[in-house]
Design goal:
mainly alpha
């Protein structure tokens, strides 16, 4: 005999749980980015960059992943941005230097155990937009620190999760 769960999968408890988890994750990401943008407008300083959108996926969908821990979020974005700025400073922006900066950023994340896939886009962003060295402070450091702070508060108070699993 078929149960309601097998005849109507949209009514199953498992599906309802997935919908709730998806809404919780999506709501967290939306709130975090919106708050950063409101602070950015209020302070007239950059706090958001495109790779942070991908950081939201890891932080709110996979918060227990090593890739979502504060060390990885902050360290990964910092190192790859420094790689991009360094290569830009010494070699300029051309196809080979864009590849070099991206590869260097990935290697640095691996060597320091700070791998955070969204940060892999930072060298390309830096090389294509050619910001100054202050880009390290805003939006990278200030943005990632605020993202981690929001993630800690959100996961502990709203999602009722133990985040982070480790700080360093």
């Amino acid at each position: 005999m078929k149960t309601a769960d097998t005849r109507f999968p949209l009514l199953s408890a498992a599906f309802g749980s997935r919908v709730f988890a998806a809404l919780l994750a999506g709501g967290g990401a939306a709130a975090c980015i919106s708050l950063l943008l409101l602070l950015q407008d209020w302070q007239s300083t950059a706090l958001v960059m495109a790779p942070f959108g991908a950081t939201m996926v890891i932080l709110f969908v996979l918060p227990d992943s090593p890739l979502a821990q504060p060390r990885n979020i902050v360290g990964g974005h910092l190192l790859t941005t420094l790689a991009g700025l360094s290569v830009l400073h010494f070699f300029g922006a051309d196809p080979l230097s864009l590849g070099l900066a991206t590869g260097l950023g990935i290697a640095l994340m691996m060597l320091t155990n700070t791998t955070h896939p969204p940060a892999g886009a930072n060298p390309l962003l830096v090389m294509l937009t050619q910001p100054g060295w202050n880009f390290v402070l805003t939006p990278v450091m200030s943005g990632t620190l605020l993202i981690v702070l929001f993630g800690v508060l959100y996961h502990r108070l709203i999602a009722r999760r133990n985040y982070p699993q480790r700080w360093f």
